[in-house]
Each structure stands twice: as C-alpha cells, then as structure tokens.
Write a structure and sequence with these properties.
Layout: E1 13-16, E2 20-24, E3 33-36, E4 39-47, E5 50-55, E6 68-70, E7 76-79, E8 87-88, E9 104-107, E10 124-125, H1 130-133, E11 138-139, E12 143-148, H2 154-164, E13 169-177, H3 179-191, E14 198-204, H4 215-229, E15 233-239, H5 241-254, H6 268-276, E16 280-281, E17 287-295, H7 304-312, E18 315-322, E19 327-330, E20 336-337, H8 352-374, H9 381-398, H10 406-420, H11 423-426, H12 430-436
Parallel strand pairs: 8-14, 12-17, 12-18, 13-14, 13-15, 15-17
Antiparallel strand pairs: 1-2, 2-5, 3-4, 3-6, 4-5, 7-9, 10-11, 16-17, 18-19, 18-20
Helix pairs in contact: 2-3, 6-7, 8-9, 8-10, 9-10
C-alpha cells in the first residue's frame, strides 16, 4: 500500500488477541481504517491513548513490531448506478470479475434518518408469497425478520422474495454464505434475468468471519443511495444475521468485554437496531424495507439474538415444515406483521381483512380438530371439513412455493370457503358475502359448529 507523505508509522503493538491488537496512539478516530502488517483493520475502541484495532483477516503471524498505519478514513463504498447487477465483497470490491465501480465515495455505517423526516409507512410491498401477502402483509419502510431453523430453505425464500417483490431495487447482504449458497443466488438471479435491479454484497464461509460485520453497512449504504438519490423503493435482504451476531461476539470476547446473555455482547440490541432502524419511508417516495433472516438454534426463540430482534422489528415471519403437505410454510399463528393494518383493505381489496381473519380462524379450528384426532376423540362433520380445508389452504396459500397476486389469493380463499363451509360458519360481513361469495348456501348438519350455538 502507498503511504502518504509524513504519514506516521507505528511499530509497537502492546497486545495481540485472536482478532484484535492494541497500541498507543493519539491520531486514531472511531471506525477509522488502518493497515496492520499489510492487513486491513478498523478502530473499534479508544481509551485515552490506547487504541484497539479489529484485524479483519485475523492476527495470526502479526509480530509486536509490525508496522501500523492509520488511513484517516472510515470504510467507504463507491455508489452509482454501476452497482446494479454486480457482486461485491465486504469491502465493496467486485468479486464477479467485473470492473471497479466509478462513483461517489460514501462512508458506510452512517446514522439512521431523523424521525421528523420520515413518513408513516403506508405503501403495499407485495412479495407474491401467500403466507406473507395474505396474512402478514408488508409495507414499504418496514423492518421484519424471518425466524427459521438452520435446515429450513430460507435462502430459497430470500431469492424468491428478491425476484417476486414489487420493489425498484433489491440489495442482498449475504453473511457467512456457503459457496453453494452464493452460487445459488448468482445462478437464480442470472437465469431470471433480474440482475439489472439487484446489488449483492457477499461474505462466504471461506472469508474471515470478522468481515461479516461490514456486510450490513455496505448493503444499507447502497440502499440509501437508491432510496434517497433516486427516490426508489428499495428492499434490503440480509441473511443470516445470527452469523453477524456471532462475529460481534468474537470481537467482544477478544476485547475482554463482559458477555451478556448467551455469550452475546452487551451492545447487541444497539448493534442490531443500528441496522434495522435504517428502514424508512421518505416523504418524496423513496423507501428502504428490511427483511432479515435470523436462524434459531434448536428453535430457541428465547435466545438473545431473536429476543433482541423481536423488540426492534415490526413483527416476525416464522417458517415451519408442514408435514401434511410436505412443504415449508409461513406459520400463520407465530407470524405477525404489525403494520399490515395500514394497507389491508386500503391498498388491497376491501374483503382482505375479513377473508384473512376467517381463514386463520378456520385453520385454527383445523389444528384443534387434529389435536382431538391425535388424542383419540371422535371428529364432527365440521372438524372433518376444517381438516380438509387446512390441507388445501396450506398447499395453495401458505406454502412458500406459491407465487400469485393478492387478489388471486383472496379468490382462492372464497373458493375454499364455498367448498367446505356454509355462509353462517364464515362470520363474514353480509355485504362482502353478497359481493364475493361464489357458492350455494350449504346445509349445515346438526353436529356442525353453527348448530352448537345453543
């Protein structure tokens, strides 16, 4: 690396850990980059004149008399329309054999938008996935995670969302991807002809784990360029934030900080919120929506990572395996979009809220019937119909493989209602029944739910 004239070179490291080193200097500033024995590092702590540097590729082989040079600037990203269709590493360098991006240099990791400059989210963000659009409708400017077990196909889902979402620009932040997952994303985007609207920042398992800490900031800096400068509707996909948190834990432990719950740093909430709070709806039309994957260890929702995430985000999307249809579904009971009321029935068809409520209630009745069956109780005619409804509802609407418009989802629900239930069993407003009911009034048998009201 070329050093500037009169740039001081330090050559006395006082302490070396697995991923950090310390030295004395009064020239350093927080987040500033440095070169330690030819390796890129970043200032993560300053106590008086004692500076702690996080070495991204690790400290193995670095001697105590290694040369240390501070660059005088924080990590930056060159932003321009040339980002589109490209794949970059954690430093913003191309990894797709393409040319360097020429654009404006912007420091990553800046502050979130002032709340007084935000607009209340009110624009629909359709994904084409029934379990999301029908029951957990998203809005632009929202922040929401996927909670998933490691063996679930969350990378497939994120790729599907990238291709189906009604957004102007997609920013993918791949954190700790296997090479197979990286190639999967690349092939899917190329084969779909969608590269021109997707920007990808990738850290693989072969890259140093500490580099994962840069991926969310790189992705969100690119998102801010398109949302603010171009007034575009931007969707940021981050996967997997659990691996990002693990990298935070490594640095925290190497700095001898006292660990909090589950060996996570005490700053975990702030570290996550710093990224999630970049989700915003701007008054001029641009927006940043964040969907992130948080993998669960053994389904433990009480772990510090999902626990802190739940306090920050505006809902969550749970993935689970539905054994009745042999597919992964978005769980209608454990999933929640806290902002859906801002758009359903307003930016979607008028019957959306009522259809959503009725279908989930009937699906819940089916789960109760399934419990009765497993415990050896006899099932009523209503129970049997609920079970049949639940299978088709899961197959045609909850499965992650579903790719249809919201109005089609609503029409399918009405078809299933007419096939298995009477008007009285739906508990839907009369005016909606008159407009959308597609079946004949069926005779309700004596042991059905409707006739047990007395």
């Amino acid at each position: 690396m070329q050093y500037k004239a009169f740039q001081p070179i330090f050559s006395k490291i006082t302490r070396i850990n697995k991923a950090t080193c310390e030295l004395q200097s009064r020239r350093a500033s927080y987040d500033e980059l440095a070169i330690v024995n030819g390796r890129l590092a970043q200032v993560v702590k300053i106590m008086g004149d004692q500076v702690t540097l996080q070495v991204f590729s690790g400290t193995d082989g670095i001697p105590t008399n290694a040369e240390v040079v501070f660059t005088g600037k924080a990590p930056v990203l060159q932003v321009s329309d040339e980002l589109c269709g490209r794949f970059f590493n954690a430093y913003g360098d191309p990894i797709d054999n393409g040319p360097e991006v020429v654009g404006e240099e912007r420091v990553i990791g800046g502050p979130s938008v002032n709340p007084t400059k935000r607009k209340q989210p009110s624009e629909l963000l359709a994904t084409g996935i029934g379990g999301i659009d029908l029951n957990n409708t998203l809005v632009t400017g929202q922040k929401i995670p996927f909670f998933a077990d490691p063996e679930q196909p969350y990378n497939q889902i994120m790729a599907d969302v990238a291709l189906r979402a009604k957004a102007d620009r997609i920013i993918l932040g791949g954190i700790g991807l296997t090479n197979d997952d990286y190639l999967f994303y690349k092939n899917v985007f190329e084969n779909a002809g969608a590269l021109d609207r997707i920007v990808s920042f990738i850290n693989t398992t072969e890259d140093p784990s500490i580099e994962r800490l840069l991926i969310p900031d790189m992705a969100l800096t690119a998102a801010e360029y398109f949302a603010v400068d171009k007034n575009e509707k931007v969707l940021v996909l981050l996967t997997d934030l659990t691996l990002y948190c693990d990298a935070l834990s490594i640095v925290s432990n190497n700095m001898d900080q006292i660990a909090s719950k589950d060996n996570m740093p005490a700053s975990l909430y702030s570290d996550l919120a710093r990224h999630y709070e970049k989700a915003v709806q701007f008054p001029d039309g641009g927006s940043i929506t964040i969907i992130a994957v948080t993998t669960l260890s053994g389904g433990d929702i009480t772990h510090a990572i999902p626990d802190n995430t739940g306090y920050i985000t505006e809902g969550q999307l749970f993935l689970r395996r539905n054994t009745d249809i042999g597919a992964t579904v978005v769980d209608p009971f454990r999933s929640l979009s806290r902002l859906k009321q801002l758009v359903i029935g307003k930016k979607t068809r008028e019957d959306h809220p009522q259809v959503m409520n009725a279908s989930v209630r009937l699906y819940a009745d089916a789960m109760n019937a399934k419990t009765k069956l497993e415990n050896g109780f006899d099932l009523s005619d209503y129970d049997q119909r609920c079970l049949e409804f639940a299978k088709e509802y899961a197959k045609h609407l909850l499965s992650i493989d579903v790719n249809i418009e919201i109005e089609t989802m609503l029409d399918i629900c009405w078809d299933l209602f007419a096939k298995y239930f009477s008007i009285e069993e739906l508990s839907v407003k009369k005016e909606l029944i008159n407009t959308y009911w597609k079946g004949k009034k069926r005779e309700v048998k004596a042991d059905s739910k409707a006739d047990r009201s007395d």
